[in-house]
Write a structure and sequence with these properties.
Elements (H helix, E strand, L loop, with lengths): L13 E4 L2 H10 L10 H6 L11 H9 L1 H8 L7 E10 L8 E14 L4 E11 L5 E12 L2
Antiparallel strand pairs: 1-3, 2-5, 3-4, 4-5
Length: 147
């Protein structure tokens, strides 16, 4: 069982730089054709600092930053038992190429169901950029199966 003493744990801040090529690749993979996601001139003409990241890009960015793996390791969770349970995003300002994102993550809750056969780790993350703008709030639930 995952020790509930970890509820409220704040992971060390993780910093991640947003690259234009990474945004373009992500947009192409999901079939996004809006030029603000692909072309710097189009993004700037629309009033953005640079190419804009599609909305779900930030979930991958959080994963790429390493924060999720650090939490799983700290909680001593076997990766073979992990399932993705839920995710939610509340956006406050766009993410653009060249941004440096700060991920401040904390464990909001740990609970179990089915007599401990399933455990749930709830993470909340505040994302800010190099301008100290509040970019987004991320909410995710990791499910650990013990069956």
């Amino acid at each position: 069982m995952i020790d509930k003493k970890h509820i409220g744990y704040a992971a060390p801040t993780t910093v991640w730089e947003v690259e234009k090529g990474r945004i373009r690749f992500f947009a192409e993979v999901i079939g996004e054709t809006n030029p603000i996601y692909l072309d710097e001139a189009a993004a700037k003409a629309a009033g953005y600092r640079n190419v804009v990241a599609p909305p779900t890009f930030i979930f991958g960015a959080e994963s790429d930053s390493g924060v999720r793996m650090k939490l799983l390791n700290m909680l001593e969770i076997d990766l073979r038992k992990v399932l993705h349970g839920e995710q939610r995003f509340d956006y406050h300002t766009p993410v653009c190429a060249g941004d440096t994102l700060r991920f401040d993550t904390r464990i909001a809750d740990i609970y179990d169901k089915k007599g401990g056969a399933l455990e749930f780790v709830v993470n909340d993350t505040k994302v800010t950029n190099q301008l100290r703008e509040h970019v987004a709030d991320l909410h995710s639930v990791i499910v650990v199966r013990h069956v």
